[in-house]
Amino acid sequence: MLTLNRTIGVLLSASLLTVSMVSNAAEEITGKIQSIVYSSKVIQYLNPATKEVQVLKYSDETTLLEASSFKDLTVNTKFKAILNQDNVATQIKRVLVKLPDEQIIDTDTLADLLDDGETVFIGDARPTSVYDVGHIPTSIATPADKLAANLQWLPKDKDTLVVFYCGGVTCPLGPKALKIATAEGYTNVKAYVEGYPAWKSDVYPTHVNQAWLESNLDIHHVILDVRENPTASVQGAVHMPVKQLADQHEIWNSEKFEVSKRLLLGLRDKKAPITIIADTNDADEAIEAYEILSFWKYSNVSILNGGFEKWSITKRPTSTDGLATTLVYEKKLLPGAVEEQVFVTAAKTGDATIIDVRNPDEVATGHLENSINIPLADLDKQLSKVPKDQLVILHCAAGARASLGYTLLTKNGYTNVKYLNDSFKGVVTDNKIPLI
Q: Does this entry carry the keyword rRNA-binding (predicted)?
């Protein structure tokens, strides 16, 4: 009997040890970064297995693989991570595209080919919806998931240099398109692995097509005519000559004015889709305006392919009654984003719980009297301070951290929560909301 009891005890101990090991086992996940806040060390990512948006943390002790710093973890980066029981990554590895050197073309080489007028077919392997809002000049939409069924997109001469690109060094779509074209007998196919982010980073011009712009003549898109004295322009365009833009740029340079605060006609949304209009897409005015606005950190600036000359010839919607010089723009609300006026009312009346997810040093520079400060990195540990029986609005400095906080709260069962996807200082200044 004693032997039996000892045996049962040993088996029970082994079973408990196994359960303990499973509960403490590290979790391995794969994801695609949607947003990242370096100051708070928080990543919002799309889980491809569950199609859900989730949040993880990392720390200074997190091991990085295939990356030189956390700044390499940018939007759309594919990664694998090992998480501990606190949902903190102990290891993050970028999932880089791997191709033989002879199949890769770099940014400067591709730019030189375009500048020299060489024959090259450039296919954008990203989804068409992404291609539409900005693409490399002369490229055509060849989404990788549809290419095999649409080989007519490719040039007839299979010896033509064919280059595919997508969203950067972790994006598999360009290599996927390369594989399809090669299998069809194309003999000179390469992938521009650095892709669209590198092209934009080096401030090479990007284009939008005329048909796309015609379908987006609304207050959610900025159309900027930078010619000196246009008598007609794209319908809804606002006029600011490039000389005026350049003069302001020089003044701010001389004053060492902070780049993030440099605004085009008061436009706070640095992700606003901006289309530059000149007579042609390669006009000096268009290129200079593109470079200045890119320097000001507007991230979705492009030039109208074909310029106004083509727009006019194809008889697309045109304004001839004098161009506006005041910008009218409304940011398209993302899921969970709060309308500006709702936030303003809550800030002035206190009829919602406003949570400031900035860090304490930022809060010390000015905050709303009725807001609660819970830094984003601590939000999951202080859920008891967040009510579930009334509207909760999160804000940070510009919207990224508030968006992450929104995701975290909704994952924890909060259903009446919104976030301010805008410049906090800009909103409070424009609406004369006092800070303390």
A: no
